[in-house]
Amino acid sequence: QVQLVESGGGLVQAGGSLRLSCAASGSGLVITTMGWYRQAPGKQREMVATITIFGNTNTADAVKGRFTISRDNAKNTVYLQMNSLKPEDTAVYYCNAFYNSQFIAWGQGTQVTVSL
Fold first, then answer.
1. Which of 9, 45, 11, 7 is nearest to 113 (CA)?
2. In DSSP terms, which residues pair with 97 in a beta bridge?
3. How far apart are the first and last CA of the chain?
4. Nearest Cα to 38, choosing from 76, 101, 89?
5. Edge-to-edge, what's the strand order for the sheet holding 77-82?
6. What angle do CA 23, 55, 10 make, to 5 degrees?
7. What is the pLDDT of residues 64-104, one digit of tens each?
8. What is the DSSP string of 16-40?
9. Number of helices and strands (H, E) in the chain?
10. Distance between CA atoms of 57 and 6, rounded to whole angstroms?
11. What pLDDT does residue 29 have?
C-alpha cells in the first residue's frame, strides 16, 4: 500500500507561482505514473498533468505553458511547478499514483487559491 503526502499549496496573487510536492511512501513500490488532478467547487475533478517513470508527460491544455510536472524516481516524489497562476486555477489539487501495475492511490489534497 502507498501513502501520498502533498505539500506546497497556499494563497497567491494572480501572476504568481507555487510549487507542489507529493512524496509517496510504502514498501515494494513500482510507481508507473504519477500525476496531479484538481477539483474546483462545483466542478468535476480534472487531470492537470501526469508523468511516467520514463519521464513522458501529459499536460492539460488549460495549464500548458504555465505548469510543469517533474519527478524524482529515487525519491518517489512528483512536483508541479505552477507559474502565471490565474484565479481559475483555484482548486484542491490532488496527487495520484498508479503503482504495482494495478493500484491507484490519491493524496489528501492541498488547497491552491489564486486571488485577483
1. 11
2. 34, 105
3. 40
4. 89
5. 3-7, 18-25, 77-82, 67-72
6. 40
7. 999 999 999 999 999 999 999 999 999 999 999 999 989 99
8. --EEEEEEEE-SS--EEEEEEEEE-
9. 0, 11
10. 19
11. 86
Indicate the helix (H) or strand (E) that contains 70.
Answer: strand 67-72
| Residue 64 neighbours by CB distance under 10 Å | 10
What distance lies between CA 85 and its chain's CA centroid? 15
- Return the C-alpha cell found at 72: 524524482
Q: Write the single-letter amino acid at 99.
A: Y
User: Hey, what's the cell of 78?
Assistant: 512528483
Give yes or no for residue 1 having a pLDDT over 90: no
Residue 104: its H or E element = strand 103-106
- CA 100 to CA 87: how far, in whole Å? 37
Three cell numbers, residue 41: 467547487
Instruction: Using DSSP, state whether 8 is helix, strand or coil.
Output: coil
Task: Report the alpha-carbon distance of residue 97 to residue 83 in Å, rounded.
Answer: 23
